[in-house]
Every structure is written in C-alpha cells, then in structure tokens.
Amino acid sequence: MRAVQHRTFGDPADALEVVDVDEPHAGPGAVRVVVGAAGVNPVDWKAVRGAMAGASPGDPVPGGARTPGVDVAGVVDEVGDGVDDVAVGDRVVGWAASGALAEHAVLEDFARLPEAVATEQAATLPVPGETALRVLELLDFREGQTLLVDGGSGAVGIATTQIALSRGLTVVATASEANQDFLRQLGAVPTTYGEGLVERVRALAPEGVDAALDAAGKGSARDLVELVGDPGRVVTIADFSAGDLGVVVSTGDDQRARRLREVVDLAAQGVVLVPVARTYPLEDAVAAYEESAGGHVRGKLLVTPR
Q1: Among 21, 61, 89, 137, which is most exposed with the fewest C-beta within 10 angstroms?
Q2: How far apart are CA 60 and CA 55, in angstroms?
C-alpha cells in the first residue's frame, strides 16, 4: 500500500516521502480501515520535527520508519479478535495506531459513525473534539459563565467554542482580523489576539472571564492568567512552558475513547461542525503539513489517500 513515512526527524518537506509499504493488520481489540480521510493536526508536524520525542533534525526515527498522523475516518475491512461492536463494511472514526497518512490504518480507539456524519467531516473530530471535551471537563463550568478561547478559528478552538455555547456559556474568542466574522457566525464574541488582549477582553466582558483556553501557544498565558485571576483556571494545549505560571498543561488522559463517542454524538446532533479548510491527496501531504505549520488554518486540513 502507499503511505507517507519519515526515517529521520526534520521539517516535513525534508523528511516525508510517499513509499510502498506492507499493509498493517488488525490485532486483538482493533480494526483496520480503508482510509477515507486523515486529519492534520499541529501535533502531527511537530512530531515529524521531533518535538514530541525530544529529537533533533536528522536524528533517526526509532524502529527505522514512521507513518505520521492520528485522525482517521474510513470503512472497516478487517476486524481483530474481541471486537464485537463493529463489522466489516461499517464506517468508523478514531486514532490510527499505525499512522494516518496511508491507504490502510489500524485503529485501537474508535467509534462507529452514524449516517448523519460524513466520512470527511468525521476525520475532523478525534483530536479537536476530544481536546475540547477534555478542556471543558477540566474547567468544570457552570451555565452562564464566560470562557476565553485564544485561537478560536483553529479546529480545537472551533470545537471548544461550539460545545461551550451549546452548554450555555458565553465565549470570547480570538483570531486574526480576517476571521472575526467567522467567530461571530459561530456565536462567539470575537476579538484579535496579541498585544492589548487584556484591555480588549475586559471591554468585551466587563463582568470578567471565568476561565481560559490557550489553543494557540503564542505566548498569551500571562495575559490569560491576568484576565482570569487564577492560573488553575487556565488550560493550555500548546504552550508547555506555561506550567511554570501554574497554568494547567493538558496533553491527554485515558478517557479519549469515551470522549470520541461523545463528540461523534454531538456531531450527529449538529452541535460540532469543524469546517474542512482544504483537502490534499496523499502525494501532497507535505503541503498539508506545511500549511498547518503556517498557523492560519480556519478549521481542519484533510489528506485523502484515494
């Protein structure tokens, strides 16, 4: 089968290549899918660069080669022992244990897709949707409170905003000037990011902000703490150094399968709809990763192997 792999860590343009590899197979508790669409997340290109492994450009990948990416939606074509809730021919979405940028992928955590959720739309959900639910659980909101989302036009920011609004929260969200109307259409109170954020948010939310999410990782943590007044009520998913301020750094836990099922249900209800910014063929996966690294994607980028 065709897959995108890298043998060394480095920039995607230097490290990634499309190669022919053996097909993976579903082990116990897993399924294999024909990949319909693979989602692109910032963590994906960061992993290629070696950031998640503490590696430097040029360092070899452990095991010889690696297929990047995690978010996958597709059709089951192989079922492992112990799986009794899906069958061959079912559409599912989940995390690719074997890597997402390939014609086939093995999923260990997955959810069956209802007819109301299209395959490409499903591929936008795993990382953004699970992250949004995890953050909202950590912040433990009450209806009527106000959430500040820094990075509101990215996939995580969009999913968090949509779910928060559905739960009766007010959301103030940041984005570039070009995405202010988009945030307004989501139902958020929009503002721009960067210098002067504290003053802008205070003008928009004079009664204060109850908690904040840093989904951008661009140095806003101090401003968010100042606005909220309690670093324990600020969560970042992108700025690991913010833990020095007492900010909650969240990278995941053991509840992602449960949250995936929940976000699929929310998508079926129309609560969560992350727009597809652009779709790339497998051969252009490098371009997708480079666009993601540029940091101005509204919604989610997808790669479609077929």
Answers
A1: 89
A2: 9
